[in-house]
Design brief:
alpha/beta, 17 helices, 30 strands, binds flavin-adenine dinucleotide, Flavin_amine_oxidase, FAD/NAD-bd_sf, Amine oxidase domain-containing protein, oxidoreductase
């Protein structure tokens, strides 16, 4: 590998730790580059054992002036950033844990060095929250490196193109199609079209009642009147659970509260087909929380804030939003973080393969499930209240089994559903044909059912979904392609999204968000207002970035020199493009 001064731009990384075992020849040496390479007075940091081989040493020594010695073989390199505009490197990566110079870089010991150094941040996790935070800090002139464990960005936003058109295996709705939605400026500016699946009026239904086609297990369609009537009953039952909530000081599950309502109000109890339809509504509620009704907290289930404007499907997939936000960022894919060490004025982050990165602060934007699994070690340990929040907040599972058919053979409704005696046996399919024109149905199991299906092979899972479809449409033709998500067992997510479990307070989201020293936390599970959503994740990314900016710059005494983190600038309001057929 040969590196010239100025190659790859003077602003960015010249090369990085992947070259650790490869000799590097430095050509066209200039004072700036040399000073960074050889560990002189002005150095960014290399020492004796590096595999960097510098050529042209005599000349460099002459040019470099300050260095005053011949370049020799140097060692322990890993990342170099050249700075020609007087801004020194902010983040360093090292493969050598004993590199004293890198350790020194953690605590800027002299004032001059500190003043000329760029504030630096490591963002861990390249989902919506991490990308939003990295974008905001990058735009506020911070040195930012984002470490992402997967070989792709987006996290639980995952648009797949293998069918020849976009389909989302993770998030697909913008919940709250309105200008108050933090994501509206990005989506509006990109001109991404949305398909409205419901209006404003409900927490639970991201589809209007009239757009359902429900069937029993024998394939008989449930009369639309009954679907609407049971919908109204379900809303009455939920209202009655509020009375139960007022009466009982102890929390209980939403399932238990509904049982109490039935004891008190036998008129709300339904029989036969109506009972099955009611189970189906409950099954939809479980899908909203990605959890079974007997684990959802009565006290907290409706505490999230719902933005107005209804629910809009991202017709071209969600990933363009992420790609736009990620443009120009320094993102390291395949970097799974395993350890985070925090000290008074710096952090050191280690990845699975032993690379280390140091910076002024870090933003932890990995999923709650990953934090729960303890696969990232914090040193010192996180405070007890933070660990308790991680343990106590629930994380549920919802998956998608996406079936692609040669042609459409199902009714022209937005949602097809199977009603049954229990929520576990109920199921539903999103008809993407209505929104996108593609002959695709998306089966979405949640809670225990999703957990059970994740144990199957992809083929068996697709067969399972198809069998459900055959129950209601016996003449269904076989899918030509399928995709199956595994959000519960994928070690990069370990769950689909967070929810309130029984007996735990709703302020756990806030406790999860609150920074610990120079560690800041972002992600859907840190959003009190909009947990479990993309716009929630996005807004926590911006919040963490702003908190981090303030904290780091206060310490530098340079608060006035850097712009505030504003999120997406929106000089004029672009209306969102939403339609419905
Ligand atoms: C099936 C499904 C459907 C959904 N539907 C919707 C919807 O329609 N609308 C909506 O608003 N929301 C929906 N959501 C929720 C939404 O997708 C999430 O709330 C949001 O995307 C979370 O973003 P995040 O940045 O918090 O986390 P993620 O997107 O999960 O990002 C975290 C990142 O951290 C990375 N990571 C993990 N461990 C490490 C590590 N050790 N080191 C480095 N990186 C690591 C991960 O790979 C990931 O990229 C859905 C979710 C699922 C699963």
């Amino acid at each position: 590998m040969e590196v010239r001064h100025g190659e790859e731009g003077n602003r960015g990384w010249v090369f990085d730790g992947q070259l650790r075992n490869e000799p590097v020849r430095l050509l066209d040496l200039s004072p700036d580059l040399v000073s960074w390479v050889i560990g002189g007075e002005n150095s960014g940091g290399f020492q004796e054992h590096s595999r960097v081989e510098a050529v042209g040493g005599e000349e460099a020594a002459a040019n470099g002036g300050k260095i005053g010695k011949k370049i020799q073989r140097v060692e322990a390199l890993v990342v170099i950033s050249i700075v020609t505009d007087r801004r020194q490197i902010g983040i360093m990566e090292s493969g050598d844990k004993s590199n004293r110079q890198l350790q020194r870089a953690l605590c800027y010991s002299d004032v001059e060095k500190r003043d000329s150094a760029s504030p630096s941040v490591i963002v861990i996790g390249g989902g919506t929250a991490g990308i939003a935070a990295a974008r905001a800090l990058h735009d506020a002139s911070f040195q930012v490196v984002l470490l992402e464990s997967r070989e792709r960005i987006g996290g639980r936003v995952h648009t797949d193109y293998s069918f020849g058109f976009p389909v989302d295996l993770g998030a697909s709705w913008l919940h709250g199609v309105c200008k108050e939605n933090p994501l509206a400026p990005v989506i509006g500016r990109l001109g991404l079209p949305l398909y409205r699946t419901s209006g404003d009026n409900s927490v639970l239904y991201d589809h209007d009642l009239e757009s359902y086609g429900l069937f029993d297990m024998e394939g008989n369609q449930v009369p639309q009147e009954l679907v609407s009537k049971v919908g109204v009953t379900f809303e009455s039952i939920l209202k009655e659970t509020d009375v139960v909530r007022q009466e009982f000081s102890e929390d209980m599950s939403i399932f238990r509260a509904i049982s109490i309502v039935f004891e008190r109000r036998p008129d709300l109890r339904l029989e036969g087909l109506a009972h099955k339809v009611l189970q189906w509504y409950l099954c939809r509620m479980e899908g909203w929380f990605a959890a079974d009704a007997d684990t959802i907290s009565l006290k907290c289930w409706d505490q999230e804030e719902l933005l107005p404007g209804g629910h809009g499907l991202m017709i071209r997939g969600y990933i363009p939003v992420i790609n736009t936000l990620a443009k120009g960022l320094d993102i390291r894919l395949g970097h799974r973080v395993t350890k985070i060490v925090r000290r008074y004025n710096g952090v050191k982050v280690t990845t699975e393969d032993g690379r280390t990165f140091t910076a002024d602060a870090a933003i932890v934007a990995v999923p709650l499930g990953v934090l729960k699994s303890n696969c990232i070690k914090f040193e010192p340990r996180l405070p007890e209240w933070k660990e308790a929040a991680i343990n106590d907040l629930g994380v549920g599972i919802e998956n998608k089994i996406i079936l692609h058919f040669e042609k459409v053979f199902w009714p022209n409704v937005e949602f097809l559903g199977v009603v049954a005696e229990t929520t576990y046996e109920c199921s539903y399919f999103l008809n993407l044909h209505k929104a996108t024109g593609h002959s695709v149905l998306v089966y979405m199991p949640a809670g225990q059912l999703a957990r059970d299906i994740e144990k199957m092979s992809d083929e068996a899972a697709a067969n399972f979904a198809f069998t459900q479809l055959k129950r209601i449409l016996p003449n269904a033709s076989e899918p030509i392609q399928y995709l199956v998500s595994h959000w519960g067992t994928d070690k990069n997510s370990l769950g689909s999204y967070s929810y309130d479990t029984v007996g735990k307070p709703h302020d756990l989201y806030e406790r999860l968000r609150i920074p610990v020293d120079n560690l800041f936390f972002a992600g859907e599970a840190t959003s009190t207002e909009y947990p479990g959503s993309v716009h929630g994740a996005y807004s926590t990314g911006l919040m963490a970035a702003e908190d981090c900016r303030m904290r780091v710059l206060e310490r530098y005494g340079e608060l006035d020199l850097f712009q505030p983190v504003m999120g997406e600038e929106n000089p004029f309001s672009v209306p969102l493009l939403i339609s419905r057929m």
